[in-house]
Inverse folding.
């Protein structure tokens, strides 16, 4: 990390605990074709998830850590549920018949709030793609309309993830997005700044230049 991105130790400690807890749940996700290659790629998983969580507030981190712990106690796997919810776009018929009946039902008001957050974040991601096209090219496709069985968009992934959050966690996440918007900041840019810092780049411009080379 650069000096400007050094974070309080308690933030890093919380974020790392969450990544570890997610990794344990991720190891138990069962795909149709058996274990996926990404389930053996701890380094990438850690970098991508840690960058996301380092952009969060401590209350949000604490709330999501509680979600993961509560899920374990209840015999639920939030990572399995996330990927299941993503199938509402990639395999809608199967989702309706096989997956949706096993997932907690989300109220209409909660879904409406999800969609407002998703729209804001897709907008930020599109802005980032425009400013850093090489880095953007290595990210997920942006929109649900571009989903395929082989590739799931940022929009669909985010929709699946938000659906796993407790009400308390989503309230705090929604507040985080609102704070970024009020401050004229871009959450995608913040997360990618942390991602490239963990790869040794001083800033996004340096990482973009390296991708162009």
């Amino acid at each position: 990390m650069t000096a400007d991105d050094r974070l309080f130790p308690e933030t890093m400690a919380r974020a790392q605990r969450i990544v570890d807890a997610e990794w344990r749940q991720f190891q138990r996700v069962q795909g149709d074709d058996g274990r996926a290659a990404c389930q053996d790629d701890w380094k990438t998983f850690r970098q991508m998830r840690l960058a996301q969580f380092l952009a969060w507030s401590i209350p949000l981190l604490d709330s999501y850590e509680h979600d993961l712990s509560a899920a374990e106690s209840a015999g639920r796997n939030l990572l399995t549920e996330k990927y299941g919810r993503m199938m509402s776009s990639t395999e809608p018929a199967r989702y309706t018949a096989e997956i949706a009946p096993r997932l907690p039902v989300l109220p209409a008001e909660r879904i409406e709030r999800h969609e407002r957050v998703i729209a804001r974040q897709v907008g930020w991601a599109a802005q980032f793609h425009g400013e850093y096209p090489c880095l953007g090219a290595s990210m997920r496709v942006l929109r649900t309309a571009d989903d395929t069985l082989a590739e799931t968009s940022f929009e669909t992934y985010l929709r699946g993830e938000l659906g796993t959050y407790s009400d308390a966690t989503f309230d705090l996440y929604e507040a985080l997005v609102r704070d970024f918007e009020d401050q004229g900041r871009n959450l995608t840019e913040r997360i990618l700044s942390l991602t490239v810092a963990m790869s040794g780049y001083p800033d996004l411009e340096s990482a973009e230049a390296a991708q162009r080379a």
